Amino acid sequence: MQQIPIRLVFESALELMALTQLGKFAIGEKPKGMPKPIQFILSKFGNGREEDKLAGYLSFLKVGPKLLKYVPVGKVQDLRNWLIIYGYWNAGGPENVAAMVWTLAEKYLGLTVGDIPEAITAPNMGLLHPDYEGYFESPRQYLTWYQQQYPTANRPVVGLLLYRKHVITQQPYLPQLIRAFEAAGLVPLPIFINGVEGHVAVRDWMSSPYEQTQRALGQVLTRSLSAEAVSVDAIVSTIGFPLVGGPAGSMEAGRQVAVAKGILEAKNVPYLVAAPLLIQDIHSWTRQGVGGLQSVVLYALPELDGAIDPVPLGGLVGDDIYLIPERVQRLTGRVKQWIALRKKAAGDRKLAIILYGFPPGYGANGAPPPC
Predict the structure, then answer these.
(1) In the predicted model, is pLDDT for residue 333 greater than 90?
(2) Is 356 part of a structural domain of the chain?
């Protein structure tokens, strides 16, 4: 591997990504080997919070190439080229992949390519709707448009976390899911993210009646709440994985639970996980159940953060994700029930208590464990 001068590894094991090298730039170098001007620029993307570093890094990837051309350091040119190449890859789509290969050919293989188009990009975070061409840059902008198009007085608003790459590749299940929420009498707030900004979307772009009441009383739990945030009655994640870190998060159980707990407590609305199976086809799922790895990363890890009521929505058919209508109806029905339960007076709620009764036949139901 070391004798190959150009090595690009994207979205793989950390050990493999560390082998990436482009000219004088190598991902595997220690952070102290990064030129100081680059460290300075990187430090400006983020707010210093540990949980926001990955989201800040993605912002740097988007505008970094334009900034780095003003930094006269030997290694910066190769770093800038890598950022451009990664930008094409991250943007996705055949046109961007072709432009990525053309960039490599011109800058490192000595070939004359000509004019290479810039990456066709979408925001790192944004909103979409099947009836709108393009993307919304803020929840308030989206909801203002939505209410003008579809008068929805008193309908509950549900935040939906969606994969950005599924938006870019135009997976057909996304408009179907949005339409299903509308058909159930809910207002969808479909926010797409790369995966690592899930906590940012919930923390900064979604509020709730509870949070607004607390803020009016001087209890400000989310200081970074955006002025463009809108109130939601529930949140549904179709991504799975931990709320903080997403697919790039740690497999250490509960590593960022305290941060996620603080975010969800500030909103105090139901947080459901309903991810479609990303690496399992519907045929094997319906016959063998959810695979072990997927059951952990898509459902168990979110539950450590406080996610409830997991509903697998569908799975792969070929290269596309398909939804099972009965599962989608189950999800929207449960969301409506959770919202209705929160609005019901405490005295009218019914509570079920499940007692641990093992071993059976020994009068252990509800009894304290033996000393």
Answers:
(1) yes
(2) no
